[in-house]
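Morning F.,

Quick status update on the modeling queue. The single chain you submitted on Monday has been processed. Sequence for confirmation:
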Amino acid sequence: MELTHLHVLLAQAKKLIGKSEFVVVGNLSILGVVGGGKAPPRMLTSIDVDCFTRQDPKRIFELQRALGQGSPFEAKHGFYLEPMDERVPTLPEQWESRLVRVPLDDGIMVFFLDLNDAAVSKYARGEPRDREWIQAGLGAALLSAPVIESRFRQTDFFDADEHERAIKALVEDRARFDPALRKGRGKH
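Structure tokens below.
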């Protein structure tokens, strides 16, 4: 996925509901940083754009039939809108202050999750494909394990089990991708 693809989708969304500011969460948060270039392919493979409208977030759900999964839009373009409730992702405090603002043509403004905030949400979900995205980002130095760890302390997880799973996964990934930890393992 590239910003040009995202523009096609959001231009249609703007036309249908008259909103021009969108918040993109999930895998495609990477587009706010690299725009589709110089990112590990695993971070760009999503065909669903997890998103909500910045003002009046519930309006995004009006687009499900026209732009969502199984829509004529998806059939034509090969990707689709996944309307999100702004409260669904597990995110650290002050995530909104770290949104990456990217203007597109036609007066569209996209606000992308900070990549480390997206990683917090993905660790909370704990799905294998989320871990693959995180590992690709850590391997490319687009994510920072110490930053993610500090953001965990600013996050209200669903419950203690979710929090423990997230910490365990981060420890595993950090051991795999942190050069200092890899060197330490080699000395034993």
